[in-house]
Write a structure and sequence with these properties.
The chain has 200 residues and is mostly helical. It contains 9 helices and no strands. Helix content is 72%, strand content 0%. The protein is globular and about 50 Å long. This is TetR family transcriptional regulator.
Length: 200
């Protein structure tokens, strides 16, 4: 049986679930015991899979987190696409961010803060985080273009997508490194308001 149009097949959905399970296991281990102290064997054992299975899904240890880095991309874009077109963009993006964040399975705030710090300080993972941000920008472009009534190849639309992702990333990094962290929702709201994107 073929997959419905636009929907992954059952086999592909199972692969995606396995990738995300490996990623979330790796994220927990990296957060709890550090990136360098965590081995591929540790991740495979904690995930209940063989090393062979691990390497079927991940070329190297630093690739294990990729699904965690990218899982919010589609969620945020999908949520933003459902927001009313006449809703101020700041409010729409904030609501989409809040909704997509609540759908993620890494719910422990302190673990999430440690993970963001790892993503920002381990060069191999930071490269993948930056790549995930660029992917999110590319996915945001058609949604923003539709809201703005502008062509997708518009420089202004691409700049807006870049500014939005950078604002969210900076807010998350700031939250992760605070000794007494503020509410992450309030930080993202401040970051988006600072951009004054509703005036663009």
């Amino acid at each position: 049986m073929t997959a419905a149009r636009g929907r992954p097949s059952l086999t592909e959905r199972r692969r995606q679930e396995t990738r995300l399970e490996i990623a979330e296991t790796a994220a927990a281990l990296f957060s709890d015991q550090g990136y360098d102290a965590t081995t591929v064997e540790d991740i495979a054992s904690a995930a209940g899979i063989s090393l062979r299975t691990f390497y079927r899904y991940c070329a190297a240890k630093e690739d294990a987190l990729t699904p965690v880095l990218t899982s919010g991309v589609g969620l945020l874009v999908d949520e933003l696409a459902t927001r009313p077109v006449d809703e101020p963009l700041t409010s729409a993006v904030q609501a989409a961010f809040d909704s997509s964040a609540s759908a993620r399975r890494l719910a422990d705030p302190e673990q999430a803060r440690r993970l963001v710090r790892i993503m920002g300080t381990v060069p191999a993972i930071r490269m993948r985080w930056l790549a995930a941000g660029r992917d999110m920008q590319d996915q945001l472009v058609p949604v923003l273009a539709a809201r703005k009534g502008a062509p997708e190849d518009s420089m202004e639309v691409r700049l807006l997508a870049c500014a939005l992702i950078d604002a969210l990333s900076v807010a998350m990094e700031h939250w992760a490194w605070q000794d007494e962290p503020e509410d992450v929702v309030e930080l993202t709201r401040r970051a988006l308001n600072y951009l004054r994107i509703d005036e663009l």
